[in-house]
From TrEMBL:
Catalyzes the 2-thiolation of uridine at the wobble position (U34) of tRNA, leading to the formation of s(2)U34. Residues 147-149 are annotated as: Interaction with tRNA. The gene is trmU. It catalyses: S-sulfanyl-L-cysteinyl-[protein] + uridine(34) in tRNA + AH2 + ATP = 2-thiouridine(34) in tRNA + L-cysteinyl-[protein] + A + AMP + diphosphate + H(+). It comes from Saccharothrix coeruleofusca. This is tRNA-specific 2-thiouridylase MnmA. Pfam families: tRNA_Me_trans, tRNA_Me_trans_C, tRNA_Me_trans_M. Its EC number is 2.8.1.13. Residues 294-357 form the tRNA-specific 2-thiouridylase MnmA-like C-terminal domain. It is found in: Cytoplasm. InterPro entries: MnmA-like, MnmA-like_C, MnmA-like_central, MnmA-like_central_sf, Rossmann-like_a/b/a_fold. Keywords: ATP-binding, Cytoplasm, Disulfide bond, Nucleotide-binding, RNA-binding, Transferase, tRNA processing, tRNA-binding. HAMAP family: tRNA_thiouridyl_MnmA. The record marks 126, 336 as: Interaction with tRNA. Belongs to the MnmA/TRMU family.
Length: 361
């Protein structure tokens, strides 16, 4: 097959490309330039997509002996990921930019261009597994639970998955680093990126304030309605947040307060006890499903990239997915994705569906 390997400049994508070459595919490497003004140097695990990352990707391609290109996707990335991120926070929701990037950049914009140029698949360094049943491609968790990225890939369609390749799905991160060193790849010990790539300093609040400006509002006790303080905008908060609330006086019972809900129109941030964060029902829209909804489905629901899972029963009601959690989850916010899995410890839990959370109860 003709394979386009998306090479970020990190160890995972470099080893994924190497395995595609070793499997006998005709591989071409490409680095996506996602920033109009990329930083010159990377600092530790802060961000990605810098000039240094592009150089690392090129050096890896040279070691593998494959053609290498840099494609400018900055405008598309800004519109579909960065602007979406800002708009979601302004609306009081909590988006996942990595999920959006996979959905709209790597497996929409990049994949569309790859197919148009005659490539059969896009290869990435994601930790997830693919299997084929009756000619249909299915997405599963990776072998390394700590690195599993099936959650941020769960919104991909069956057609997109049919053109995807995840060579690292059956490996652990430690094994990937060892392999990179053995192959002579200089990125073998390069730190992983743990931050939002377009906010390399890690200051999400500052980034949003610069984009949205100050939009003053009130911090209100959800139980009593008492005003506890003021804030510069609902975009500074997320549901479940405990620190940085700017409340001077402790709760009457001495226990910490948490953000329970955000009301962007009135500018109200409601806070209360941890117990009030417990969610037992989730309603989500725009489902991407790999099952036929002919009734309630037993599953495991996941609401965060790592953690936030509970056994559940899900059903499709008037085009929305309603998830009834058998165990309550905390910190579930509108704008997040909920991914549904069928447990399978042998082959990897199977992704059944993904949808965007609108309300919780």
């Amino acid at each position: 097959m003709r394979v386009l390997a998306a090479m970020s400049g990190g160890v995972d994508s470099a080893v994924a490309a190497a395995r595609a070459v070793e499997a006998g595919h005709d591989v071409t490497g490409v680095h996506l330039a996602l920033s109009a003004k990329p930083g010159t140097l990377r600092t530790g695990a802060r961000g990605c997509c810098t000039i240094e990352d592009a150089h690392d990707a090129r050096r890896a391609a040279d070691v593998l002996g494959i053609p290498f290109y840099v494609w400018d996707f900055a405008e598309r990335f800004t519109e579909d990921v960065v602007e979406d991120f800002v708009a979601e926070y302004a609306a009081g929701r909590t988006p996942n930019p990595c999920l959006r990037c996979n959905e709209r950049i790597k497996f929409e914009a990049l994949l569309d261009k790859a197919v148009a140029l005659g490539f059969d698949a896009v290869c990435t360094g994601h930790y997830a597994r693919l299997s084929t049943v009756d000619g249909r491609v299915e997405l599963r968790r990776s072998a390394d639970d700590g690195k599993d990225q099936s959650y941020v890939l769960a919104s991909l369609t069956t057609e997109q998955l049919a053109h995807a390749m995840f060579p690292l799905g059956g490996s652990t991160k430690a094994a990937v680093r060892e392999e990179a060193a053995a192959r002579g790849l200089s990125v073998a010990e390069k730190p992983d990126s743990h931050d939002i790539c377009f906010i390399p300093d890690g200051d999400t609040r500052g980034f949003l304030t610069r984009r949205l400006g100050e939009q003053p509002g009130l911090l209100v006790d959800d139980e009593t309605g008492a005003v506890l303080g003021r804030h510069a905008g609902v975009h500074e908060f997320t549901v479940g947040q405990r620190k940085g609330l700017g409340i001077d006086a402790p709760a009457p019972d001495g226990r910490p307060r948490y953000v329970l809900s955000l009301e962007p129109v009135s500018g109200t941030v409601r806070v209360g006890s941890a117990e009030k964060l417990a969610v037992t029902e989730i309603v989500a829209e725009r489902p991407v499903s790999r099952i036929e909804w002919d009734g309630p489905v037993e599953c495991v629901a996941q609401v965060r990239a790592h953690g936030g899972t509970a056994p559940a029963v899900a059903e499709l009601v008037d085009g929305s997915v309603v998830v009834h959690l058998r165990e309550p989850l905390r910190g579930v916010a509108p704008g997040q994705a909920v991914a549904l899995y069928r447990p399978d410890p042998t082959a990897g839990d199977l992704v059944l569906a993904s949808a965007t959370i609108t309300t919780t109860r």
